[in-house]
Fold this protein.
Amino acid sequence: MLNVENINCFYGRTQVLRDFSLSVEAGRILCVMGRNGAGKTTALKSIMGLVRPRNGRVVINGTDIAALQAEEAPRHGIGYVPQGRRLFSELTVADNLEIGLMARGSGGDVRERALDFFPVLRERLTQRAGTLSGGEQQMLAIARALCLDPTVLLLDEPTEGLMPAMIARIREVVLNLKNQGVAVVLVELRIDAVLQVADQVLFVENGRSRDTVNAATLRESPEMLDRYLGVGH
C-alpha cells in the first residue's frame, strides 16, 4: 500500500531524515513515535511532497511519487491532517470540505460519508471554520482529508490539546477507517492512545527509522518506550 524506502531529507544543509523507511498495508494502523525533533513530522511531509527527498522512494499502490509536486500527492489517494489543522479559517465548513473534494475530483457521496463520521459538522456547514471549537476544527480537518476518499491517511498528532471525549471520538473514527481498508500512519505522543489503536509502532530516532514493533508486543514488554521516548511505563 505505502512504502517509504531509504529517503534522505534536508532543510537547507541540515539533514533531518537519514535513510528513513516505513511500510503500512491496507487496513492497518502504523504509529510513528519518537522524541521531539526526531523527524516524525518531516517524515509525513516527505510523503506528501512538502519536503522533497533527495533520494529514495515513496511508493503508493506501486507508483513512486517521490519526485512529484506536492499538489499531486492527494490525487494518488493520500489524505493528510497536519499538526495544527491548517484549515481555511475564514471559509465556511462547507467550503473547507469542498476544497478537499476538489483535490481528487470526489463527489457529494464522498462528502456525505465524511460527514457521517462527524455528524455535528452537518449543523455547522455555513459556519466559518475559525469560529469552531478546537475539537470541531480537528473534526473538520479529518473530514476534509476524508473528502479525498483516501486509501492512505496521515495524521500528525490529531489528539493534541483535545478533551478526553474528543480523543475517544477520533480514536473511534481511526478504527472505523481501518476496518474499511484504509492504511493509517499516525504520529502521536500519547502512549495510551497509541497502544489502544496501533497494529504496529515505528520508533524514530535522530531522523532514522529504528525498530518496528507489534503493538501487542509493546504492551507486554514496554522497555522500548523508555529507550526511545525516555519515559517509564
User: Anything to note?
Assistant: The helical segments are 40-48, 93-104, 108-117, 134-146, 164-179, 191-197, 215-220, 223-229. The chain is about 35% helix and 25% strand. The beta strands are 2-11, 14-24, 29-33, 55-60, 63-64, 78-81, 152-156, 183-187, 200-205, 208-214.
